[in-house]
């Protein structure tokens, strides 16, 4: 039941289901086939029922509205920061665990061990298969609209694996293991509590930006909702959601386009420099805004200030 529920949530959770299937495939193919069929048939029935019951809205919200552009550079950048740099010790420990389990499985197959294709699946081998697929899935963070919550399932798995390793160390206690456990806990605590602030010019949200947005007279259109709330402004226009409503034909964009053309919008906050994109119809901007809105911004607004990932425009 939980596997079927996972099939109707975000793609990062599917990694657990896929990991179980792969583990079964390598150890008990009959069980893998049963898992596949028990997943496929109920999921197909539920999918069809949801599509019929919602007149196609279910398919639109889960498939059509998620066909966004993908940036491998963005994915690699996020993985480097949140996985490799911030939690590098537990990440490296989990890599060592997975490597040891895969090596052990390969050795058993090579030695033609009777249990290598038996009916029992090693829990550690199962965790390793889930880890591999979950690690692959975190690269979906490069999709437009994805956020760091896509790492939650992966780090939950990493935490379980590291806990297993620490428990094993405690059971086989020795001085070097005590030192290693102490280093692990200290590094995790430092990762939470030691967060050096970058120079003002390198911050994503600078103090001058927050002051400018909070004191601006008029409405503000922003791709970054966090910036608006930190500046104490309410959300006037959510670009991505409104773009989807326009596609469905249930929203009229003309008031917003007219407000931009008449320069009634005090600030427009984007995550890309609209004037330096390689293509005028670049998906980096058109995933959230319509061509009419983009053209209105280009014609009537100029870049006021910027940080590493934020570009703020004001009327010309």
Fraction in beta strands: 5-15%
Rg over CA atoms: 25 Å
Count of individual helical segments: 15
Outline the low-pLDDT stretches: 198-202
Estimated helix fraction: 55-70%
Regarding quaternary structure, what we see is single chain
Query: Structural class, from secondary structure content?
Result: alpha+beta
What can you see in these coordinates?
With 316 residues, the chain is α+β, with helices and mostly antiparallel strands. The protein folds into two domains: 2-59 and 69-193, no CATH class; 200-315, no CATH class. 60% of the residues lie in helices and 7% in strands. It contains 15 helices and four strands. The chain has helices spanning 2-6, 11-27, 29-53, 57-62, 72-85, 88-110, 123-137, 152-171, 175-193, 207-215, 225-230, 239-248, 254-261, 283-286, 291-300; strands at 219-222, 265-270, 301-306, 311-315. The chain has a four-stranded mixed β-sheet with strand order 1-2-4-3. A hairpin with a 4-residue loop joins strand 3 and strand 4. Helix 2 (11-27) runs antiparallel to helix 3 and helix 6 (88-110) crosses helix 8 (152-171). Mean pLDDT is 78; it is low at 198-202.
Descriptive labels:
15 helices; 2 domains; 316 residues; 7% strand; alpha+beta
What is the strand and helix layout of this fold?
Layout: H1 2-6, H2 11-27, H3 29-53, H4 57-62, H5 72-85, H6 88-110, H7 123-137, H8 152-171, H9 175-193, H10 207-215, E1 219-222, H11 225-230, H12 239-248, H13 254-261, E2 265-270, H14 283-286, H15 291-300, E3 301-306, E4 311-315
Parallel strand pairs: 1-2
Antiparallel strand pairs: 2-4, 3-4
Helix pairs in contact: 2-3, 2-7, 6-7, 6-8, 7-8, 13-15
């Amino acid at each position: 039941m939980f596997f079927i529920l996972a099939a109707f949530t975000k793609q990062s959770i599917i990694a657990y289901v896929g990991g179980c299937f792969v583990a079964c495939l390598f150890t008990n193919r009959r069980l893998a086939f049963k898992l596949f069929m028990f997943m496929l048939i109920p999921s197909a029935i539920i999918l069809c029922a949801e599509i019929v019951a919602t007149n196609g809205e279910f398919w639109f919200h889960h498939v059509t509205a998620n066909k966004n552009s993908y940036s491998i550079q963005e994915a690699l950048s996020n993985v480097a920061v949140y996985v490799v740099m911030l939690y590098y010790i537990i990440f490296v420990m989990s890599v060592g665990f997975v490597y040891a389990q895969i090596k052990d499985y390969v050795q058993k197959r090579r030695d033609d061990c009777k249990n290598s294709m038996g009916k029992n699946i090693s829990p550690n081998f199962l965790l390793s298969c889930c880890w591999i697929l979950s690690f692959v899935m975190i690269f979906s963070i490069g999709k437009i609209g994805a956020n760091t919550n896509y790492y939650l399932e992966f780090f939950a798995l990493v935490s379980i694996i590291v806990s297993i390793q620490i428990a094993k160390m405690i059971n086989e206690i020795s001085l070097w293991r005590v030192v290693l456990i102490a280093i692990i806990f200290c590094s995790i605590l430092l990762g939470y509590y030691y967060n050096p602030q970058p120079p003002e010019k390198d911050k994503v949200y600078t103090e001058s930006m927050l002051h400018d947005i909070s004191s601006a007279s008029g409405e503000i259109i922003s791709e970054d909702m966090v910036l608006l709330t930190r500046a104490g402004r309410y959300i006037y226009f959510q670009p991505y959601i409104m773009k989807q409503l326009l596609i469905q034909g249930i929203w009229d964009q003309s008031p917003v386009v007219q407000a931009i053309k008449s320069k009634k919008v005090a600030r427009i906050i984007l995550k890309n420099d609209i004037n330096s994109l390689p293509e005028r119809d670049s998906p980096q901007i058109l995933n959230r805004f319509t061509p009419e809105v983009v053209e209105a911004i280009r014609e009537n607004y100029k870049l006021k200030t910027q940080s590493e990932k934020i570009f703020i425009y004001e009327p010309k």
